[in-house]
Amino acid sequence: MMAKPAADWRSNRAAVQATNDDASASKLSCIKKGYMKDDYVHLFVKRPVRRSPIINRGYFARYAAFRKLLYQFLDCEIDVDEKGNKKQILSLGAGFDTTFFQLQDEGRAPYLYVELDFKEVTRKKAALIENYSELRGKVGEATLISQEKGEVLGDHYKLLPVDLRDIQKLDDILSLAGIDPSLPTFIIAECVLIYLDPESSRAIVGWASRTFSTAVFFLYEQIHPDDAFGQQMIKNLESRGCALLSIYATPTLQAKERLFLDQGWKRAVAWDMLKVYSTFIEPQERRRIERLELFDEFEEWYMMQEHYCVACAINDAMGLLTNFGFPNEEHVVGSPTSTTT
Fold first, then answer.
1. From CA 282, how far away is CA 284, in angstroms rounded?
2. Closest by Cα among 91, 32, 40 to 59
3. First vs last C-alpha separation in the chain
4. What pTM does this model have?
């Protein structure tokens, strides 16, 4: 299939950053309806909105899948004395995500949590962290905050500005953040890479594979651009200036897996969100949230969930992640010479 012409990224940038506000508003809508708990996201939302039941359920599915996989990672015991049980989380295009603050409340925050985004976003987040005592207290009173630079530098939490397409800068940022590439690292990219050009997406995935020898790369984004629903989805996003620049490079679940394997990751598996929702999210959680609102949009729900996916790629030099990931499925593996199964 011919690649579709890419929209100009420069015109895309501000619009894509605005999706950050949409995501926070959607999360707050879910929280107000009782889908999940988050004591912090309301601090990041200027104008609360009430989303439809299908959007609420879709956002819950995304949240629940991410949380289950993140907890799996955090619960892996490291059997290496000199490293203790230290782990890291690296969030690419973190936006106004509040996971760090929630993990702090739960007593499950990792040794180091690093968030990266464009300076326009990190400046706003740094200002909010500085101005709200609820947030400031979680990052530590001694933490250095610069609203002008868009930086928050604490012992266990870092917020730093970067253009993810600048791979050389990413290396510099890791040094500034104090990230140890040998520690187990959970990398998050939710609806981030798909907005970049395919070359940049591949470069980031390859850089992460080369940099982190024991890691999970969690990817959540759109698939199937070619059917009627996919074309309408793309049209809706493009009308807001948000072109999915990489979707034609990785249009299917298999293509998402290949993106990682071709860039050196040892294992990769991608499921669409319909499968994730029906077989991975806890049944009691599904039953609980399905009672929260009247829901009759089943046909559209199935189609929408088939057009979003979670892909997980794994490097496991420490042998820590053998049982990580989706259940009862063979992971797609990289080169036959790999010793990781």
1. 6
2. 32
3. 32
4. 0.92
